[in-house]
Amino acid sequence: MKRVSLTLFFLIICNTIVSAQSNYFNQLWFDFVPYRKFNHGISVYGDLGYRSGVGSNRWDRVYLMGSVRWKVLDIVELRGGPRVYFDFYPEFNDVFEFRLWQGVNVKWPEIGRVKFAHLGRVEERFFYTFNSDRHSFAMRYRYRLSLSVRLGGEGLKRYFYLPASGELFFNSKNGSDVYHSSGRIMAGLGYVWSEKITYQFTMTAERTREYRIRGVELAGLYYQFKVSYRVLK
């Protein structure tokens, strides 16, 4: 637990450093994630979400996501699916993004109550800017190392857990005119309410470059509240 506490403390310090940057912005994220597990290790997820920029960098995003997960081994899972984003800006043209992605998730190692996971994925991103007929395409590669620490005993149906992660982004050169993320770190608190419902609140620090402000590095904090709902048979 000491190592976990040090990790979370480090993430909080990094968030504090990010908030001290001059080019700084906040975002609020709200997500609802229904999903269902089928036979043969297959699960289907459907995400619905809303994001909003706070302060001078005001913008709004509505998005829909669908994905399929296939557990091919005890610790290996294949993932993929489409995503659709609508970005609304008060001072700029709105943007539509259609995204396809494919990934592999490896759940290893598991040390007591601490579970680690490695997710690598590839994204094909198609952009269209309204009122300008401008469109573009970009590839992006992502790697995320995450961990989850269960705080309740194995026999409890309701318990808290601590999620944390670090993620790196590698963007293609031909997508230099779009929104680029370079790295994220996240820490939070989750609560398993029942077999169906899980609540999670996280705070994420990110370094990025907004495509409307070319060459300007930005830093931000994202506050996310997510509800996951398992659809049972």
From TrEMBL:
InterPro entries per UniProt: DUF2490
Superkingdom of the source species: Bacteria
Pfam families listed in its UniProt record: DUF2490 (PF10677)
Signal peptide: 1-20
Keyword terms: Signal
Record protein name field: DUF2490 domain-containing protein
Organism of this sequence: Aureibacter tunicatorum
